[in-house]
Structure formats: structure tokens, C-alpha cells
Amino acid sequence: MRKVLVTGATGQIGSELTMVLRQQLGAKNVVAVGHSRQPDLQLLQSGVYRTLDIRDQVAVQNVVIEHQVDTIFHLASLLSVVAEQQPQKAWDINMQGLMNVLEVARMNHCAVFFPSSIGAFGLQTPAMNTPQDTIQRPDTMYGVTKVAGELLCDYYHKRYAVEVRGLRYPGLISFKTQAGGGVTDYAVEIFYAALQQQAYCCFLRADTQLDMMYMPDAVNAAIRLMQADINQLTHHNAFNITAISITPEQLAAEIKRHIPEFKMSYKIDPARQAIADSWPRHMDDSCARKEWGWRHEYSLSVMVKDMLVKLADKLSGDDYVTGASRNPVF
Ligand code: SER
Predict the structure, then answer these.
(1) Does residue 269 lie within any of the structural domains?
(2) Which of 18, 120, 224, 237 has minimal Cβ neighbours within 10 Å of its Cβ?
(3) pLDDT above 90: percentage of residues in the chain
């Protein structure tokens, strides 16, 4: 991993992964591409950024050749809720985008990182301690593209020896870039609402348990997997990983420890609740822990504290914060 391309670089994971990779590998060795014509200044000023549609294979190929890329972190994708609203477009972006990346990787001898998700599971999957290898059969277009994506990656690895590795991410919590159109977005929105209004109306039931992870752990997992010794990997792709398995009620209680006036209410959105109910409560990630030493650093309490400090700082800079919670208690 010397010269890296990050697709979806303006998205929730991509925006943070790009910056960490630039610190680790040197800014000139990390090229960022995304569909946005107005990425944030940090991304633009710290290295090369190109606007590109991931469905355009020639455009992907040109960037890879021009910058002599050897590793592609492929993060461009539509999330679950948006994909349900536009299933055909989601197939196009998630599947054609992945096929383009795998083809370019095959022709240019690149390694590929592919993020799958808890969304790759369905109602027939065991919800507790979801095994690494188990029945999947998701109900959503997002899930269909993630399972098909996992299989396509396996195929390219087996058929063409493309070095593809991947993870099944849980819901991701971060302060830098908002998640866009996923079921687990509540776990990000709640922090903005807690700091700005000291109240949040949650679209999932109070007891909806899902796996979550703080972004620094998610970024670290991707890099660590790509650097893992191949001889230690039995699974290679689609590793279950998790950090924090929580309900909205538990997250609210932890936030309340810092913002005592915070109030949580619930107005269930049946569509998003149905998707959440079809996903695992808690994945078994022992294969990742055993094969390449995955371990998370952020527990619920450490994540909430860090998130509130960093987000309060960001919002005060943006002049967003109103009311009593300018000074959450730590
Ligand atoms: N965070 C994603 C979503 O909610 C799941 O991978 O769509």
C-alpha cells in the first residue's frame, strides 16, 4: 500500500479515512475522488481531489493510471434508506461502481478494500451473536447490493487473484461528516440535537438494539485489515466487526450524563424500523479478532464523551450551537 485511491471520499467514512491515510502515507500518495464538486477545504487543500462518477469506468481507470495507484479503498455507495427510495439507482451506483473498481483493479494489479455492512443480513439471520458465516438473505436493496458485492469480491479474488479484503461495518458514529440516508443515522443526529436543542425525537423504538462503532475505530479497522499478513487470513473478505451494541434508550442515557437537561422522545418511522428489525442485534466478530487482530478502542462512554467534545467544538466554530448545552458536563 504505497499509492492509494479513496472513492466516496466526501462521504462519512471516506472523508475521515482520506485524512488518516494522508497522514500515514504522505499527502501526495492518497488521491481522493467523489461525486461532489464542492468537497470540504481540508480535503481539497491537503492533496489531490477529483470529481468523478463511480459508474464511469474510464474515469476510474484514468485516475488509477495517472497516479500509479496500487490500492483502492472503495467507499462510494448509497446507504439503506436512500437505496430503498431509489432501488434502481442504488443498484447502479453500488454494483456498477464496485464492478468498475474491481475491473480497474484487475487490469492494473491493485488491491481493493470493500465495506459491507450489518445490512447484508436479514430476518432469517440469527440476530444475536450473528456468526461470520451464516444465512444472509437481506430484504433491502442496500442489503442485496452488499451481499452481491461480497460475492463479487470473492469471485474476483478467486478467479483473477485480485487482492480484495472487506468488512461488515455496523452503524458508524462520527462528528466530521453527517451520515446520509441510513437507518443508523439516529445515532449521529442525536448528538447534534442534544447539543443544539437538548432534545431529540428518535425514529426507532427505544429498545432497538444494533451494533455501532465510533469512526476512529472504523478507519483503523480498514487500514489494519489491508495491512494484515495474508497468511493469517482464512476469510479474507466480509469480516464481521463490531464495537458497541446499543439501543436508542441506552445512548440517550449516556448523553444525559453529560447534558442532564437532554430529553428523548420517540416517533417511530415504520419503514426505517422494519429495516432495523431485520438487522443483527449483535454480530460475532471473533474471526476478525483472531485472524488479523481486530480490536476496538472506543467503548460507549468514551465514544459519547469524545463525540460531545469534538462536535461542540465544531458547532461553535460553525456558529450553530444555541442554548444551555454550549457547555456539556464532562
Ligand atoms: N449505516 C448503514 C445504514 O444505516 C448500515 O450499514 O444504512
Answers:
(1) yes
(2) 224
(3) 92
287: in domain: no
Same domain, 92 and 129: yes
Q: How far is CA 96 from the centre of its chain?
A: 19
Tell the residue nearest (CA) to atom 3 of ligand 1.
Answer: 182
Residue 118 included in any domain: yes
Does 143 score more than 60 pLDDT?
Answer: yes
Q: What is the pLDDT of residue 86?
A: 97
Task: Read off the C-alpha cell for 200.
Answer: 431529540
Q: Are residues 164 and 256 in the same domain?
A: no
Q: Tell me the torsion sign for CA atoms 258, 259, 263, 268.
A: negative
Measured in angstroms, how far is the CA atom of residue 205 from the centroid of ligand 1? 17
pLDDT in tens, 216-229: 999 999 999 999 99
- Proportion of the chain above pLDDT 70, given as a percent: 96
Inform me whether the pLDDT recorded for 328 exceeds 70: no
Confidence of residue 325 (pLDDT cuts 50, 70, 90): very low
Work out which ligand 1 atom sits closest to the CA atom of 169: 6
Structural domains of the chain, count = 2
Q: Which of 13-17, 38-42, 89-93, 284-288 is least confident?
A: 38-42
Q: Which atom of ligand 1 is the closest one to the Cα of 279? A: 5
Ligand 1 site, residue 226, Cβ cutoff 6 A: no
On whether both 137 and 181 belong to a single domain, the answer is no
Catalytic residue status for 142:
yes
Confidence of residue 157 (pLDDT cuts 50, 70, 90): very high
60 and 72 share a domain? yes
Compute, in angstroms, the gap from residue 323 CA to the centroid of ligand 1: 31
Q: How far is the CA of 218 from the centre of ligand 1 (A)?
A: 13
Domain at 256, CATH number: 3.90.25
Same domain, 188 and 252: yes
Domain that holds residue 185: 174-211+243-281+298-326
Catalytic residue, chosen from 49, 142, 169, 298, is: 142
Matching residue, cell 467544538: 313
Residue 18: CB within 6 Å of ligand 1? no
Q: Which atom of ligand 1 is nearest to the CA of 179?
A: 1
